[in-house]
Amino acid sequence: MHKKIFTGAVISLSLLSFANAEISTLNEAINKAGKQRMLSQKMMKDYSMVGMNMKFNNPSKQLVASIAIFDSTLDELSKFIKDKEASKALEDVQVLWKKIKPQFLATPDKSKALELFNLVEKLLNATDRATNLITKSAKVSSGKIINISGRQRMLAQRLGNLYMLKVWSVGMEDAKLQSSIKEFASAQKTLEEFPKNTDKIKSTLLDVKKDFAFFEVLGASKSKKYIPSLIARSSNKITEKMNIVTKLYVEIK
After folding, report:
1. Helices then strands (H, E): number in the chain?
2. What is the pLDDT confidence band of residue 216, given thresholds at 50, 70 and 90?
């Protein structure tokens, strides 16, 4: 039991260790912009967990840390990116973030959870657009695969986010969860078929595939017995492994 708790804590800390170094290349910018997408989903997931009084991985602490990282990374990206379209997209992210941040810092309110989720969906779309424009401005062959890999981190957290909202009974459509499961599976196939995959990338993607099988089984199940702690653990494990894969793609020349 202690080993499992410790492992969960390590994964949790590594998930929040994204703001260590300043951006020096466009590939690094693509990676960090992609992490903003992931953080939008992670914050919503942790908000719901706090609202349900869940203690696994200390979601309250995780939420505060993610807010700080989103702030600092957005500032880094805004200073580094020179492309006009991408810069404008980052400004749009900033506008939305100013509306959402105070709500994440407030005590979770179940009656407002769906409204907040819809705002976070706009933030996700804005961060996705910014990432895509930064990828486009990079004009390097590795940019696209970095973007796809980075987006898998977001989808892993999105699966956890949608599941938590389902458990919290706020009126979340199950179709969104099913759609995200299919989207993750499709993108993972694209990554597995990338011709420049190293042995390390291949083995890590195989580990992700095993972890993701849990969500595929969950998606096919009609059971009303919920397992939020296991879902939180699995989404974090996949995100951490996809973070490793994305960093490896950044290093590919």
Report:
1. 9, 0
2. confident
- C-alpha–C-alpha distance, residues 199 and 85, integer Å: 36
What HEC string does the chain produce? Answer: CHHHHHHHHHHHHHHCCCCCCCCCCHHHHHHHHHHHHHHHHHHHHHHHHHHCCCCCCCHHHHHHHHHHHHHHHHHHHHHHCCCHHHHHHHHHHHHHHHHHHHHHHCCCCHHHHHHHHHHHHHHHHHHHHHHHHHHHHHCCHHHHHHHHHHHHHHHHHHHHHHHHHHHCCCCCCHHHHHHHHHHHHHHHHHHHCCCCCCHHHHHHHHHHHHHHHHHHHHHHCCCCCCCHHHHHHHHHHHHHHHHHHHHHHHHCC
Domain span at 87: 2-251
Q: How many domains does the chain have?
A: 1
Give how far Cα 86 sits from Cα of 26, 67, 83, 93, 146, Å: 12, 22, 5, 11, 17
pLDDT in tens, 125-161: 999 999 999 999 887 778 899 999 999 999 999 999 9
Closest Cα to residue 71, out of 47, 51, 93, 55?
93
pTM: 0.89
